[in-house]
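Lab notebook page, bench 4
Experiment: in silico fold of construct C2
Operator: M.H.
Input chain length: 440 residues
Purpose: comparison with the prior construct
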Amino acid sequence: MTHTRRSFATVLALWVIGLTAVLVLGVQSAGLGQAFGSRDSLAEVRARWAAISGMERMIAILADDTEDPHPTDAYDVYDRLSEAARGTIGGGSYSIEHWEGGERFDGPADAAARINIARMTGEDLFWLPNMTEDLISRITDWTDEDDEVSPLGAELGSYLSQAYSYEPRNGPMQSIEELELILGILPLDVREEDWNLNGVLDPNENDGDDVWPPDNADGVLDAGWSGILTVVSSESTYGLSGQPRVRLGLGLGGGELVGRVGITAEQADVIAQWAGNSDAVLETLITTPLRSLAGLTGQPIDPRAQPLTDEQIGKLLEEAAIDSPWLDDTGPILPGRININTISEDSLAYAPGVTSSIAELLIRERAGRALGFRTVADLLEVPGLTRGRVQELVQTFGFRSSVFVIRSVGVDDASGMRVELIATVDRSRLPVVIRDMVLR
């Protein structure tokens, strides 16, 4: 009996010891798990703040350049962005890069280096890879304001009849991936190798067919339509002086032009009166002398008006605009022209109204200009371009950019944890606006 009691006591003691050990281990494990969890959380915070720091650095440079741009160097802001594209802060670091025309660059991506689809006609779209007439009609139906189906197109009824029904935009597209909602358009045409649309060649986009998407593993990012097109570029409401553009129309704005453009009061008065015409377009001044400009009566405003120099025309087109709602802080944005200084040679082949010979001429001339094209006066210096051709080109091309896509990768130095922050930043008006932001 005594032996049995001792055995039971021994078993009980061992059971208690074992249970205690389990409880201790459980507490230790929980504490260790919390410690690891806290450490991971801290690492994520460091990485996130590093990414945010890089983003804020880019925004500060863009805001400063908007108010105080370099007067002659079109590449100055890109140099500044590139120099600040890598940095460290409080145990973390950030890097900002993008790919354009198959090449990697430090700094944010310039939206105006691509063609804004809102400025393209059906004929322009036709030259895109794998584009067909029916897809052009469906893109047109998706963006126009009516529900009338164009030949080969698709409108409301077609989308409501899908297994998962939805409605067409019937307005300007808000993102490049929205193209994939249009019936018949394949994601591979839009994205090709850039499957996550982050503008960077990721490992799975450079490994052949090992991991989706399929790619040719050549170390170059082939981004399909997303590498050619944009929907976010916009025209700046600020001039090269760093001040809001002079608003012309119904005789307004003439006085401001004298100081900004360096013209006489008489010249400014002719321009201001002519700008009141409903069909007035500032680019007309590239080919039409002031003495030929007519007012509301149809008669020349001042036959004695002295002509503008090319330098004055260049400044005028950068400092002024015909009065329009897009100049208001609350008005709709004006889709941006292509930045002639940053568009890649490959994308230039798809630019509206640009022949292969003109594209070659522009690329050759750009390569020889260390400071790039700053105003239309620089284009007028290009041998082989007539004034009429320059007037046509500036309907498509501009010399500055307002919208940038910033991909800032923050890294915690201790753990290597990475956070990717992608934002579309618009400086066409001040203060600078973040249109959208994704944290990965």
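Observations: Residues 246-327 form one domain. The two ends are 69 Å apart (CA to CA).
Next step: discuss at group meeting.
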